[in-house]
Amino acid sequence: MVTSDQRRRQLAREKYQRQQQRREENRRKAKRRNTVVAAALAVVLAAGGAVYASVALTDDGSPKGTDNAAGDTPTSSAPTPSASESASPEPKLSVDTKATYTMALKTNEGDITLTMDAAKTPRTVNSFKHLADKKYFDGTKCHRLTTQGIFVLQCGDPKGDGTGGPGYTIPDENLDALGKAGADGTVTFPAGTVAMANTSQPNTGGSQYFLVYKDTKLPPSYTPFGKIDAAGLKVVQDVAKAGVEGGATDGAPKTAVTIEKATVTKK
């Protein structure tokens, strides 16, 4: 026969066991949350990318105007050209590899001028000259703004959703320009830097690039190919101050930025 004292002890043990189970479940939930956060951070550090779970600074390199289904962010898997569209070859190198070039972006929010050194990034500058001469960037939108973790405005996509590209890729260049990576695997991209987006893989630059409006730590896997002039940097910073649509920290800028005309000239 169970005494009242024994029954109380049994109930106490059962209560303790339930508490322990709840604590263990809470620990498991916390671990899962931390794993998700760590994975999100890993995405940023590994890919960029832009973008922190979806801030990867990527450019899928699809041909301009393809009808491939697009993911909702540039971190989506890169679509491939349809059977009716063949990839274009990288344009033949025609720039003066000892010269400095400027890319003038006339936007609805103000002019942004970029200085590009062809001696350090000849194939990147050559590609931008080739595309600008073809009016490839005219009428395109800067489709992505990030305001947390990394601080960039991403442009250069003819489709305006992060999935467009010129149909060819260009190699990485000048990756050691910002110094050696620290213990966290990153270097600082100073405010005013212009760098290439990519597909998270080496040598996959296309037409998308990002304008750094505040010092940003990223892996040294994005070609830094230019500098923004003071007036242009203020334009980008003003856009950043207005924030992202819907109050998010990553997405289309609330202040829409359209590149009305882009021209590349030798200084």
TrEMBL record:
Return the InterPro entries for the record.
Cyclophilin-like_dom_sf (IPR029000), Cyclophilin-type_PPIase_dom (IPR002130), Cyclophilin_A-like (IPR044666)
Q: Which UniProt keywords apply?
A: Isomerase
Q: Domain of life, per the record?
A: Bacteria
SUPFAM superfamilies named among the record's database cross-references: Cyclophilin-like
Residue ranges of the region described as Disordered: 1-35, 58-95
**Bias category Basic and acidic residues: which stretches?**
1-27
Question: EC number(s) on record?
Answer: 5.2.1.8
Sequence ranges of Low complexity compositional bias: 73-91
Write out the GO MF terms. Answer: peptidyl-prolyl cis-trans isomerase activity
PPIase cyclophilin-type domain location:
110-264
**Biological role:** PPIases accelerate the folding of proteins. It catalyzes the cis-trans isomerization of proline imidic peptide bonds in oligopeptides.
For this entry, the protein name equals Peptidylprolyl isomerase
Species, as recorded: Streptomyces exfoliatus (Streptomyces hydrogenans)
